[in-house]
Amino acid sequence: MRTIFVLVKCELGRAYEVADAAVQTVEEVSEVYSISGQYDLIMKFHLDDEVDVGRFVTGRVQTLPGVKDTFTLITFKAFA
Hints:
Shape: globular
Order of helices and strands: EHEEHE
CATH topology: Alpha-Beta Plaits
CATH superfamily: Lrp/AsnC effector binding domain/regulation of amino acid metabolism (RAM) domain
Largest sheet: 4 strands, antiparallel
CATH class: Alpha Beta
Number of strands: 4
Strand content: 35-45%
CATH architecture: 2-Layer Sandwich
Distance between the termini: 17 Å
Helix content: 25-40%
């Protein structure tokens, strides 16, 4: 299992719509938070090891209606 975070920039006024769509349609999503700064949302995903991260982000996240831009962070180790 691999964890990634995707920062999402949304079209103006559509952040809540994008967040709802992610939660409802992307089963790998763990958490979605609204944030301040250059991006509007941060999404946490748990992916199986065989999943291609690039294809997942371009095919499942960037295609959500209202998504304008993304920035992906791939994690290595979780510290408790």
